[in-house]
Amino acid sequence: MNAVSKRLVWLIVAGTSLRLGLAAWFPLANDEAYHTLFLRHPAFSYFDHPPMLMVVESFGMAVLGQTAESVTPLAARLGFVLLFAGSTWLTFRIGNRLFGPAAGLLAAIALNCSAYHSVAAGTFILPDGPLLFFWLLTIDRLALALDAAERHERATAIWAQVGIAWGLAMLSKYHAVFLPLGAVIYLAVRPGSRRTFLQPGPWLAVAIGLVLFSPVIYWNATHDWASFAFQSGRAVGGGFRPDYFAIALLGQILYLTPWVWRDAVSGMVRLARGGVSGDSATTTDDPANDVRLKSLDRRTFLLSLSLPVLTVFFYVALRKPVLPHWSLVGLLPAFPLIGLAWADHLATPATHSRTRRRVSWALGFVLVSTIFTAAHARFGLVPWNRFGQTGERIARVDLTLDGIIWSGLAEQLERRGWVPGPDEFLFTSRWYESGHLARELGASRTVLCYNRKDSRGFSDWANPADYVGRDGILVSMSAKADVEPACFDRWFESIEPLGTIEIHDGDMLLRTARVYRCRRQLTAFPFDRGSLLENPARALATRPFEDSANAARR
Predict the structure, then answer these.
(1) Count of C-beta atoms within a 10 Å radius of residue 518
(2) In sequence order, what E strands does 388-480 have?
């Protein structure tokens, strides 16, 4: 094993060990608590995500011998941690194929310096973890296929591997639809490769990918195209809003960390200007094992995979609010460029020491901040109550306090007897609140989400008509007491308050929950997904409480 391989193994082993500790230590966040419910409801797809999320969770559950009803955070997260180990290796592999082993190793280090990829996607129960792995796997296979196309070779078997990787990426997140577009752009702009369109390989890849993705298509066809409508509705409509774009760009910078983002963008700009080529790559110490692709046009390849994603998501960001991580896959092709730049700077005496300090700082920042956040989640290192009202407002969005909030709320509901009996149900108006309570109260307690426009998977996991005539317990975390429970009046014979639960961390108030008994549901609660398909932008913009109230009055 050469020096580069040893360092790569050390990086993967050390990083995986840290993430396993984080996976066991950190409380489940909003999305994660809800995502663990997928294990109780296995399906071909889900309202908000394809099924790979559930498959990866199931792996950890099976390995640790647990059940869907009692799966621990470590078991649910195990597969995501292992996938990121694979993503680190794939990043090295791609960088090695394009620019040599030194660039590949430093590209893998750069990926681990990216806060979102390394910590969030690399540890937590999010679809971005599987997407990252299978996106990189598709790029790896696609590089070989396009390199063969430059040499006018068919490479049908490699194209089949491209199809498998792409299909699995599509089962992870719909973002993967951009990958074939990148291949088409590459083949279209490379005159010598256009004849590849007439060969069976690319079409075989598309066919295999669609076959693998077909369960999601089937699920949507039998559920009013709900998932496609929901996700597309997040990207349509809106007017010109440069402030949304600025927020999205700032979020992208923070998610990658400013130093990684800067090197990624500068690498892409330099690439677009023609400042990167195979000749500028660092040399390998072992020419006999040089695996760099000699025929592939690196500039066209990386730009084809990056620009379509960034263009689409930044266009959407100019019109609607977007989450910062949506566009991050568009910068994945920049990581080999970061590795190349760092390798060249380290090989230059004038810049060696400065670059070494920069890389150490980037890696150390993610390491120290992750350990600090994990310790804060368990020991409350930051006493928000000492900062007055500002501290209380910050505490309300401090995700590390979720473990205290939801376990404490469930414990008090049990203690006071405000939990549903065998013929009753508990509900909230927000999917993530219902997700936490469903997990904390256990599978024996029926927990629903009554939100006409966005109840996520809860509208599939129960037949609304089954609850007509039953009593419900409403747990309202809304600060608008005049909205809840009034918006549910028409659905029940009567609603009477049971009391209030306050969740504290020491002497600081974190959350207040108002609890009501809703007597005898009069009619099935409507989950109007048809309106999502007819007008996604309007439907998704509707406030859940107002919409429920309006629906009740009609």
Answers:
(1) 24
(2) 425-428, 447-449, 472-476
Residue 63's pLDDT band (boundaries 50, 70, 90)?
Answer: very high
- Is residue 380 one of the residues assigned to a domain? no
Do residue 319 and residue 465 come from a single domain? no
Residues 413 and 265 in one domain: no
Determine, yes or no, domain membership for 67.
yes
Q: Are residues 225 and 323 in the same domain?
A: yes
Q: Are residues 413 and 341 in the same domain?
A: no
pLDDT value of position 507: 79
- How many independent structural domains does the chain possess? 2
Q: What residues have CB less than 8 Å from 140, skipping those under 6 apart?
A: 90, 93, 94, 97, 165
The residue-averaged pLDDT of 192-212 equals 94
Return d(Cα 268, Cα 337) in angstroms, integer: 7
Residue 508 backbone phi and psi in degrees, to 5: -105, 130
* pLDDT tens, residue by residue, 308-351: 999 999 999 999 988 999 999 999 999 999 999 999 999 999 99
Residues 121, 65 share a domain: yes
Residues 352 and 469 in one domain: no
User: Bridge partners of 447?
Assistant: 426
Q: Is residue 232 part of a domain?
A: yes
325-358 burial: b if 16+ Cβ within 10 Å, else e: bbbbbbbbbbbbbbbbbbbbbbeeeeeeeebeeb
Reported pTM:
0.92
Tell me the mean pLDDT in the region 163-176. 98
Listed in sequence order, the DSSP H helices in 48-100 are 52-63, 73-99
* H-run or E-run covering 494: strand 492-505
Within this chain, do residues 414 and 347 fall inside the same structural domain, yes or no? Answer: no
Residue 443 tokens, joined: 């599978």
Looking at the structure, tell me whether residues 318 and 453 fall in a common domain: no
Residues 6+ apart with CB under 8 A from 503: 404, 405, 408, 409, 412, 509, 510, 511, 512, 513
Higher pLDDT, 88 or 232: 88
Q: Identify whether 374 is part of a domain.
A: no
pLDDT for the residue numbered 454: 87
Using one digit for the tens of pLDDT, what is the confidence trace for 254-291? Answer: 999 999 999 999 999 999 988 776 544 455 555 555 68
What domain range is 505 assigned to? 399-553
Neighbours of 463 (CB within 10 A): 9
